[in-house]
Design brief:
The complex is a heterodimer of chains A (137) and B (146). By secondary structure, chain A is mainly alpha-helical. Chain A contains five helices and two strands. Chain A has a two-stranded antiparallel ribbon with strand order 1-2. Helix content of chain B is 45%, strand content 19%. In chain B, helix 1 packs antiparallel against helix 3. The longest helix of chain B is centred in the C-terminal third of the chain and has 33 residues, at 109-141. Residues 58-67 of chain B have low confidence and may be disordered. The chains are: A mainly alpha (137), B alpha+beta (146).
Chain lengths: 137, 146
């Protein structure tokens, strides 16, 4: 029975890419916390992940070729998230036009980190399931 | 890879904040400097921060910085405060002018201290981001190895 590794791993690899991109956006916000006129941004996570999932062909099983590795669809190698960038609605905008709230961004960054680690753990479990299936004990 | 960009972004933030700390140190050190005329008296210095696309800091890529996620920060310029310094009557001072006045700097020490704390907090934030990203990257590298 051929195994499509991308389909087996599910949504997690795409989620990791979007988390990584979001970490970048939040890092940019924090780095520009004192830049006049800088507007804080964030990623519309739901839309970005949905797009990444559809690029990768979702969860469907592909059994088109005897060679499983070449048949596997490329899992969104470059998830483009630029169109999902949104401006943050500021809680307390400052006079210099900067809308970064450092504490809030720190919180979001921490949350993003935990989610990233959760996705990594799910992936880890997937791989250990595979190893169990291969070794058989 | 997004995480490599984070190192650029957070690094640029730390570098910019350390320039800001440098100007604060310079301003505080010269808070009590005096001069014999108003024009040469020490003026407080401030860095001007500007957002810049992080991928431009490394090779390749040149798109509109306003649509890109990876906004790093750079010190665009160092400007001098235009606030007026105070003239003090100190005829005994060797730097006093013909009328016995010395001209002190226009540094506001309280403002500088607040600026220092702000710069230090921002620096800590950037360092934390760097640390977290590094550990996430290492976790990803170790995926499916244990």
């Amino acid at each position: 029975m051929p195994l499509n590794l991308n389909a087996y791993l599910g949504i997690e690899p795409d989620a990791l890419q979007v988390y990584a991109k979001r970490a970048e956006v939040l890092a940019a916000n924090l780095a520009n916390a004192d830049t006049p006129g800088y507007v804080a941004r964030d990623i519309d996570f739901r839309a970005a992940l949905a797009a990444a999932g559809s690029q990768a062909g979702g969860l469907q099983q592909a059994t088109t070729s005897a060679d499983d590795l070449t048949a596997a669809s490329p899992t969104g190698e470059s998830v483009s998230t630029e169109q999902f960038l949104k401006y943050r609605v500021p809680l307390a905008p400052s006079l210099d036009g900067n809308t970064v709230d450092s504490q809030m961004e720190e919180g979001k960054f921490a949350q993003n980190t935990v989610r990233f680690q959760a996705a990594l753990t799910f992936l880890e479990n997937r791989f250990s399931e595979l190893t169990t299936a291969i070794v058989g004990q | 890879m997004a995480f490599f960009n984070i190192f650029n972004i957070a690094g640029s933030g730390m570098s910019a904040e350390s320039v800001r700390l440098n100007t604060v140190a310079s301003n505080l050190a010269n808070a009590d400097s005096v001069s014999s005329n108003a024009a040469t008296a020490y003026k407080a210095r401030y860095p001007v921060f500007q957002a810049v696309q992080a991928s431009l800091m490394s090779a390749g890529a040149g798109t509109d910085p306003t649509t890109q996620a990876d906004a790093a920060v750079q010190v665009r310029d160092i400007v001098q405060s235009t606030a007026a310094g105070t003239a003090r009557y100190e005829p005994g001072n060797p730097l006093a002018d013909g009328n016995g006045y010395v001209y002190s700097s226009n540094v506001n020490v309280v403002e500088q201290m607040a600026d220092m704390i702000s710069a230090s907090r921002s620096y800590q934030n950037d360092a934390q981001v760097l640390e977290t990203s590094k550990s996430l990257m290492l976790d990803t590298l170790k995926l499916a190895q244990g």
